[in-house]
Amino acid sequence: MAAGGAGQGALALYTPPVRIPARPDRSSAFIWAGAACSCRCTLCPIDAGSAPPGIDTGALSLPGSGRLAVLVGGEPFVRRDLFQLLEAVRSNGRVPGLVTNARALVYEDARRRLREVGIGYLRAQLFGWQESHDAVTRTPGSFREAIDGLAAFVAENDGTAVDVALVLSPAVVDDLPAIVAQVAGQFPSPDVHIVLDGAGFGATDALRRAAQDLSGWNRDASRPLLVWEGVAQDVAPSPQHLSAPPLARRWIGTAAPPATCMGRPFSAARRHARPVANSFNYVRADRELPLVASTEECAGAGTDRDRQLWLAGKEAMALYATDTADFSPPEIARVKRTLGQLFFDTSPMATLDDFTGSLRRVVADPFCATCGRKEACGGRYRVAAGSPFRREEEWMSAQVAALRGRVLDVGCGEQLYRAALAPLVASGSVEYHGLDPDPGAIAALEKAIPGGRYHVGPIESFDAEPESFDHVLCLRSFDHLADPGDAFARMAMLLRPGGTLLVVECTPFALLREAQQVAWADRQPRAGHQHLRNWESGDVLPLARLHSLRVDHHRPVSLDTNNQWFLRLVREGDGDR
């Protein structure tokens, strides 16, 4: 395509629009393209006789906010004016997206025109693998066309977000781990996600077995991300399964069709998490042994390696033990030996109002390193000098002090860093929005930081314009969120391009206490917001990939840190994509 300058004979090269990758979220618009299709699927839920007509391209209007507008049929490629419709989406200020059976992608011209129009999202619907897909579509060769066309599109792709959606059926589920591996082999690109569409399929034993076999898939960041969409909670329970609800569809321009190529409207039951413990106690027992200079003289062997330990003093070592039923043996071992998150509680009444001043780190004594009996012993430990939280608290204060623009603080509570934040609000450098479900916490913070804007409620129902915040904070509140997937999606949606999401949370830890400290703590009323999970930072990384947030800073928990992890994520700017 070329255009000449008036009277100059100059040639101007056509420049395609910037392609902005995006995946559907709550702000996305869906556009009904019509019921016509290039396949004759046996399971098609669309009644062509009663389905509403597709959108009139000339009448397309996309009011409101949101980045993405997705065409769904039927098969949008059947429309002769498809590319004009995609251009109209673009001219309305939206990023165009498309749900397709992918057969048309086998044609180079179709792929080229999608790139020229700046397609930002493409979802390919597969109803099986190889012959089983062709059997469902009743179109011989449709699988090969879809795979070859999609492979060519991905190979030529320079940023479009691509979902390969595999609709679950008994034939698919029976061989699901092998099929997922084959899909990943066909499309080895970080732009590709594999979506297992289980909306309405049900929780079968075969699906549970497949989910167990695939539970570690997302730990390998080099693979396409695997998303379990609309699958029952008990089938994919772990954070690494990365469960997602069926796409919520907000239809623009026409009446909502009763069914589409993506099935009928389906609402998965909301997941209700139960409170879990975030810590346990090692309680001092009535047993002491003298400190000795050599492992041959030590009489500490014979104790439980994970449920007991020896704490060394100046002249003796005292036995501490835990009888917790809140944590499994592997979980106790991870807290104690893998991550080393043990703390000595110096507060007389175990209140932990000032955790930075009340706790001291408990570390393994090098004395045990060469002991031949250490596998049959709780081990000797010592209390380390200094605050184990000072370094991290200084880092956190610096992060808050550097904020500028519109800031949303999710689960703000008392806002422990208000000394750094209050001057920014007072000067107008920060427009602060505090969000918390506790009205009492909001009232107290409103007095501490006047000039902010305060909202009572959870993030899952917080109503604000998409892409309206420069920064979102989620500081030690992530594990309290009722629905982490929904909450994360909403936080990502609220970020402007270039904006940051800072998530800070704590892994489980153990406290070394006297019996009277434990008894006093057990008599105190429980706080209003209990932990609903104990995720580590690695459990959140798949969510960041799902919502196209780049990891700018990641500090996981280890033997060299306290029990806080940090993730600073960036929603990349349009010019960076």
Description:
The protein is α/β, with parallel strands linked by helices. It has three domains: 17-244, Aldolase class I (TIM Barrel); 279-383, no CATH class; 390-508 and 528-576, 3-Layer(aba) Sandwich (Rossmann fold), CATH 3.40.50.150. Helices cover 25% and strands 25% of the residues. The radius of gyration is 28 Å and the shape is globular.
Q: How would you summarize the topology of this molecule?
A:
Elements: E1 2-4, E2 11-13, E3 29-34, E4 68-73, H1 82-91, E5 95-100, H2 108-117, E6 121-126, H3 131-137, H4 142-156, E7 161-167, H5 170-173, H6 176-186, E8 192-197, H7 205-213, E9 225-229, E10 243-244, E11 279-290, E12 308-312, E13 316-321, H8 329-338, E14 342-345, H9 355-358, E15 359-364, E16 380-383, H10 390-401, E17 405-410, H11 418-427, E18 430-436, H12 439-448, E19 453-456, E20 469-475, H13 484-494, E21 495-506, E22 509-513, H14 515-523, H15 537-546, E23 549-555, E24 564-571
Strand sequence of the main sheet, in spatial order? 3-4-5-6-7-8-9-10
Spell out the CATH superfamily of the largest domain: Aldolase class I
Q: What is the fold named in CATH at topology level of the largest domain?
A: TIM Barrel
What is the highest CATH level, the class of the largest domain? Answer: Alpha Beta
Number of strands: 24
Helix count, DSSP H or I runs of 4 or more residues: 15
Residues in helices, as a percent range: 10-25%
How many domains make up the coordinates? 3
Structure described in brief:
The chain contains 15 helices and 24 strands. By secondary structure, it is of the alpha/beta class.
